[in-house]
Design goal:
Radius of gyration: 22 Å
Shape: globular
Largest sheet: 2 strands, antiparallel
Structural class: mainly alpha
Number of helices: 19
Low-confidence stretches: 1-25, 482-487, 489-509
């Protein structure tokens, strides 16, 4: 690969070095660990209540449908707040918005810890979901503040925290459920959120990079209405009926509002989402791949625990405890931690497009393993770990693909949109998995249970989705195209080569 030759961009895109007198710039070596820890805590919150869900009706007196909202509301608020807070961070300060997101996480955790009322619990989970914006904000701060030789590896770890936290959250929550009062896990999450706030205040500097213009309130409302309508229809469609008037009305209204929102965004001077940039193949296909990867990743998390907990009377279930089922995903979480720097090296040596293609292949292979090894606990764990390994490489490569194609001043917003696409993929996966497990059933020992073929069908669908992500990746601009021109910039003007796409993005921005 040709050596990287720094190419000066427009003055507005230069990344200034932190002021030598800035009080928060004295510990640059701790910025990455602190941001990664914040991302891990936020990601743990996304899966924290999954082991609790079957017990919520007995613990709170709520209906099973209301209990399901403890997951649904987090998905909805995360999807809405992630791109919005990313844009706000680009405009008004990423550290400032990062602190606000962690504050929402802490307040939401306290609400859940002090109450057993389902309404209060749902409200607290809504605030916890809003904190998902920490991931793209952290990635943007890394790009602005770290030296160039550390940018790719740091971004890889920060992005992977979304999967690492999800894998760790399930067994931790299961252990708490088995040994302590269920409110304990919310008190623990509140303490971790407060610790995150203090660490960010102490360690993380405010980024000097800003996007000019006014905040697009109409665009924000339009995006919110569109996302809520689509995701609500997807997550509730299996309960309401996919052809019910309520579901079809939500889909129809979302399409209408989305078209009107797009028309407005193309005509406003400072849009919430720059659709012209988002429509470029380098950005659009990366977001499509993110949606598909999110789907393929989430299937692994959703079905592994349930599958090993199925009773032995089904002929395939292992009758495992809730703790054992949670621990099945822990090796995958550890693999994601170990593979984050490996993925960064792959992206640095061969390009993030190559890394993402490799990730999609690994995930597909993992589902092939899962398809043929569904009767042994250790082989189930092995297959789940292979899928998680591919997810680690994918989640590490996606931000690098986004940032090589957008202006520096739009990093948080663009990564927020990419994280949103992963969330949409997870929502679609949740709906598909619920539909398959609910309809491909049989009666075993007097109870209705999913058949083994239901799980195998899910593995086929998820593996096919990973291959679809591979196809989308292969249509991305080549990693070799214009190498030596486009770069990710690090602190003090350093550069690390990824592609020429960012240069074109700057010229047209």
């Amino acid at each position: 690969m040709p050596p990287a030759i720094p190419t000066p961009g427009p003055a507005s895109d230069a990344v200034p070095s932190p002021s030598p007198t800035a009080p928060h710039g004295r510990r640059p070596g701790l910025v990455m660990p602190v941001l990664a820890f914040c991302g891990m805590v936020v990601a743990v919150m996304q899966t924290l209540v999954v082991p609790l869900l079957p017990h919520v009706p007995d613990l709170t007196g709520a209906s099973p449908g209301a209990a399901g909202w403890l997951v649904t509301i987090t998905l909805l608020t995360g999807a809405v707040f992630t791109p919005v807070l990313g844009r706000v961070g680009d405009m008004y300060g990423k550290r400032r918005v990062l602190l606000a997101s962690l504050g929402l996480l802490t307040i939401g955790s306290v609400l859940c810890a002090v109450s057993s009322d389902i309404g209060v619990l749902i409200s607290g989970r809504a605030l916890q979901g809003a904190a998902l914006a920490v991931i793209p904000l952290g990635i943007s701060i890394i790009r602005d503040e770290l030296p160039a030789d550390r940018v790719l590896s740091a971004i890889a770890l920060m992005s992977s925290t979304l999967g690492i936290g999800a894998a760790i959250g399930l067994p931790v929550a299961a252990v708490v459920m088995e040994n302590f009062d269920w409110h304990t896990m919310f008190w623990a999450s509140a303490a971790l959120g407060l610790l995150d706030l203090l660490l960010v205040l102490w360690i993380v500097p405010e980024s000097p990079v800003r996007t000019e213009g006014r905040f697009d309130l109409p665009g924000t409302l339009g995006l919110t209405a569109t996302l809520v309508g689509v995701l609500l229809a997807i997550t509730q469609g299996s309960d309401w009926g996919w052809t019910s008037p309520r579901t079809l009305s939500l889909f129809g209204a979302s399409v209408a509002v989305g078209l009107l929102w797009g028309w407005f965004e193309l005509r406003t001077a400072s849009p919430m989402v720059d659709l012209r940039v988002s429509a470029r193949p380098a950005v659009l296909l990366t977001n499509v791949a993110a949606l598909l990867i999110g789907f393929a990743f989430y299937a692994n998390s959703l079905v592994t625990g349930q599958m090993v907990q199925e009773p032995t009377s089904t002929g395939y279930g292992l009758g495992a405890s809730i703790v054992v089922s949670g621990l099945c995903l822990l090796p995958g979480g550890l693999a994601m931690v170990a593979l984050s720097p490996v993925s960064a090296r792959i992206s640095a040596s061969y390009g993030p497009r190559t890394a993402l293609a490799l990730a999609a292949v690994v995930m597909a292979v993992g589902y092939v393993v899962r398809f043929f090894t569904s009767h042994s606990l250790w082989l189930i764990v092995a297959g789940a770990t292979v899928v998680s390994s591919g997810t680690a490489i994918a989640y590490s490569a996606l931000p690098a693909l986004v940032m090589r194609a957008v202006p520096v001043s739009e990093t948080a917003a663009a990564n927020g949109l990419n994280t949103l696409m992963r969330s949409v993929g997870q929502a679609c996966c949740s709906a598909v998995v619920a539909a398959v497990l609910a309809h491909v059933t049989f009666v075993a020992d007097g109870r209705t249970a999913p058949t083994l073929h239901a799980y195998l069908l899910i593995f086929l669908i998820a593996g096919g989705t990973a291959l679809a992500a591979l196809v989308a990746t292969l249509f991305l601009p080549s990693d070799r195209a214009g190498s030596g021109r486009g770069r990710l910039r690090g602190r003090a003007g350093g550069t690390v080569t990824v592609s020429a796409s960012v240069t074109a993005a700057r010229e047209s921005a």
